[in-house]
Design goal:
The complex is a heterodimer of chains A (about 475) and B (about 160).
Chain A lengths: L7 H23 L5 H6 L6 H12 L2 H14 L1 H8 L2 H17 L6 H9 L1 H34 L3 H49 L2 H11 L9 H20 L1 H9 L5 H12 L1 H11 L1 H4 L9 H50 L5 H23 L6 H12 L3 H9 L5 H21 L5 H19 L20
Chain B lengths: L1 H30 L1 E3 L10 E6 L7 E8 L9 E4 L6 E4 L5 E10 L5 E11 L4 H38 L1
Antiparallel strand pairs in B: 1-2, 2-5, 3-4, 3-6, 6-7
Classes of the chains: A mainly alpha (about 475), B alpha+beta (about 160).
Chain lengths: ~475, ~160
């Protein structure tokens, strides 16, 4: 029988203890929410420490803790280094966050911006991309929860996945953005301390030299800097990261919820704090061949190796770190996606005169509905995490140019922005299926960029920035 | 004619009976199968699966990889993780590889599966480097555009402030 690093009962106990703590904490924080703005944007009053922590913790996700080791196991050194370049997304979003806060002082979502800047057609394409991405990420997070518990404690994938979803939906439902940011702060501290500890323990116990000599003799391709698929993957991953951050309401809602003057510093600090984390988590996978660990699915490599090297105490630490990473992203995504649906679809399109109370109630129902849909989609384990996430890359990378140009450049019109996103996505998907997941985002960004360039060259219109300020439109309950 | 047909039937029945008695001892050996990718592998990593009639009887599953079908040259062994019967292998250079599974039953008897042939042929380097440089150019253009536009905005803001 399999010797798992943790007893199944230990895994369940940790999950329940953390779950009860997070949900109770969320409930306690949620008592301070008086208006929908409190619930969705934490009163637009988040300070620097919390802001930097939430940026970093949200970006440390199943991608960083499970997919970075997976890609290192598959692509070697480039997988590890290439993955860490996703920090550029946070770093480059820093100036944009400042601009967003300035342009949309009363804005709620990234969808708000696209609708006001480019019109309804581009908004529709953008919403489809956002929803596909949000579900791709939500599913990958739910799956990661199940995979984590299965690899470390042998607990059935479906039970683990369900438990993690119930906990995250629970505290987001009670506390809204305030709970998300506060739990992210604690989770960021756990992640930084835990990852530093794992890195120290691995280098001290396994040693770089023995890993290097094993890879040189048995798996030389993993050390090859001219590994073709890995070379293709490098910029693809950068564009995927940029697309994820530039378009997603997870990051826009944070920029809008931070105090004035905080967003730029917070995203820059968050990005720099995040940069070394994939290097550490990826390095874990390079030790696998030497330890004789060959997992059934490459996305299980990170926790399996860490638990094998670090023993039971280490396995508990790995478990807590990855669980924190998953929770910090899952809650953010649930909150941001439900904000997007509530604000952009329900409030702007269906019920423009909805009261504050109605919006809050609808937002909570959305969180619950998203949780249930994610659970249903996670039931069949459809792909590896890496492949699933990179499919979304074809979608999100097409938004990079329309978002950057839309924020600063007056000449790009809505029809060209819509075409850039639609055709970028289509060609990205073509690249995904014809070549591989490691080119989808690159192709998507290239096509979208070309269409935007043509759009700017052919247009002679000048967008009026004042059209972006809709003012406060929510009707308070009487 | 009739006699000959009757003899054949007896022999046939005897053969089936023999098979019936032999079958329980060879279940694992005859049913241990390895399946792998059929297409050419372009990334150097792939997953293989071991299957048997009674999966619970399989212990110590190991995949053997060699560069010749007789498994005489540079044979490497990759143990499966715990009870899992799928194994992800990685870091293969260009070439043809022969893989087979080796497993033990509950009595410690060792069995070997069929042999699977896997061909690894990485993308040509020129193709990878072309995509790399396209990515590099787009990235530099994007960063330069963003920083330039942001700087222009800051300058115009300061200018308005002074006015």
């Amino acid at each position: 029988m399999t010797e798992f690093a943790l007893e199944t009962s230990t895994g369940i106990t940790i999950i329940i203890l953390f779950g009860v703590f997070w949900v109770a904490f969320g409930y306690w924080l949620g008592r301070k929410n008086r208006t929908h703005e409190d619930f969705a944007l934490a009163g637009r009053n988040v300070g620097f420490a919390f802001a930097a922590a939430t940026a970093m913790a949200t970006w440390v996700t199943s991608n960083t803790t499970l997919v970075a080791p997976q890609l290192t196991y598959q692509f070697g050194i480039w997988g590890m280094i290439g993955y860490s370049f996703a920090a550029l997304g946070l770093i480059l979003f820093a100036p944009m966050a400042k601009r967003i806060k300035e342009l949309l002082p009363n804005g709620y979502t990234s969808g708000d911006f696209v609708r006001l800047r480019y019109g309804n057609l581009a908004w529709l394409v953008f919403i489809i991309i956002s929803v596909v991405y949000a579900f791709g990420w939500l599913i990958s997070l739910g799956m990661a929860g199940g995979i984590l518990l299965e690899s470390l404690s042998g607990l059935d994938y479906h039970i683990g996945m369900t438990t993690i979803l119930v906990i995250c939906v629970g505290y987001t439902l009670f506390g809204g953005m305030r709970a998300v940011i506060a739990t992210d702060f604690i989770q960021a501290l756990i992640i930084i301390v835990g990852v530093s500890f794992i890195a120290y323990w691995l280098i001290d116990n396994v040693g770089l030299e023995s890993i290097h000599s094993n890879l040189t003799s048995e798996h030389p391709k993993l050390l090859d800097l001219l590994f073709p698929a890995a070379v293709m993957f490098l910029f693809n991953n950068i564009f995927f990261g940029l697309g994820e951050i530039f378009h997603s309401n997870v990051w826009w809602s944070r920029a809008l919820s931070f105090k004035k003057g905080v967003a730029y510093k917070a995203y820059l600090t968050g990005g720099l704090l995040w940069l070394p984390i994939p290097i550490v988590t990826g390095f874990i996978a390079l030790a696998a061949p030497q330890l004789g660990i060959f997992p059934p699915s490459p996305d299980m490599i990170g926790p399996t190796v860490a638990a094998a090297v670090l023993g039971k105490v280490g396995a508990v630490i790995v478990f807590i770190v990855i669980f924190s990473a998953l929770a910090s992203s899952l809650d953010s995504l649930l909150a941001a996606t439900s904000d997007l649906v509530t604000q952009d679809i329900f409030h702007k399109k269906l019920k423009p005169k909805a009261s504050d109370k109605t919006l809050m109630r609808f937002n909570r129902s959305c969180i619950l509905g998203l949780g249930i849909m994610t659970w249903l989609l996670c039931l069949p384990r459809i792909a590896t995490l890496g492949a699933l996430l990179n499919f979304a890359g074809a979608f999100v990378a097409s938004t990079i140019w329309p978002i950057v140009l839309g924020l600063y450049q007056r000449r790009l019109t809505g029809s060209y922005a819509a075409c850039a996103m639609a055709f970028g996505t289509l060609f990205g998907m073509l690249g995904y299926f014809v070549i591989g997941f490691y080119v989808a985002a690159l192709v998507s960004c290239a096509v979208s960029g070309l269409i935007c360039l043509v759009g700017i060259m052919r247009s002679n219109k000048q967008f009026d920035w004042n059209q972006l300020d809709e003012g406060e439109q929510i009707h308070a309950d009487k | 004619m009739t006699t000959q047909k009757s003899c054949f039937n007896y022999r046939y029945i005897l053969l089936v009976l023999c098979m019936f008695f032999i079958l329980p001892t060879t279940t694992l050996a005859s049913s241990l199968t390895l399946s792998g990718p059929e297409a050419v592998i372009k990334e150097g990593y792939f997953t293989v699966s071991v299957r048997a009639n009674d999966m619970s009887e399989l212990n110590r599953v190991t995949i053997e990889v060699a560069s010749d079908s007789n498994f005489t040259e540079s044979t490497r062994q990759f143990p499966a993780l715990g009870d899992f019967k799928d194994i992800s292998l990685t870091g293969f250079s260009n070439g043809t590889y022969y893989l087979r599974a080796r497993a033990e039953d509950t009595d410690g008897q060792s069995y070997v599966s069929n042999t699977v042939e896997v061909t690894v042929k990485h993308y040509p380097l020129w193709q990878a480097l072309t995509l790399f440089f396209i990515g590099l150019v787009i990235f530099i253009t994007l960063v330069a555009t963003l920083l330039l536009l942001h700087r222009q905005w800051i300058h115009s803001k300061q200018h308005k402030h002074h006015d």
